[in-house]
Amino acid sequence: MRDRGIDPETARLATDLGLSVLRLATERWTAEDHRDESGFPAALSAAAADLLAVATA
């Protein structure tokens, strides 16, 4: 990201947020009660939507 002109603090924030979304999606997907036919992409999308909802509230 820094090669594209994004300052180091913002790049770190984006990386941390991305990893948090990935971790939450993985935890949800691997939980027995959340595993369904929609798979990991749906879990990842839902985790990103949850982050967006919190950020815009």
Could you explain how this protein is built, in words?
The protein is mainly α and 57 residues long. It contains two helices and no strands. It has helices at 8-30, 39-56. The two termini are 27 Å apart.
Number of strands: 0
Question: Which structural class matches the secondary elements?
Answer: mainly alpha
Low-confidence stretches: none
Largest sheet: none
Radius of gyration: 14 Å
The percent of residues in helical segments reads over 70%
Cα(first) to Cα(last) distance is 27 Å
- Please give the count of helices: 2
* Average pLDDT for all residues: 88
Features:
2 helices; elongated; 57 residues; mainly alpha
Outline of the structure:
This protein is mostly helical. Helix content is about 70%, strand content about 0%.
List strands and helices in order, with pairings.
Blueprint: H1 8-30, H2 39-56
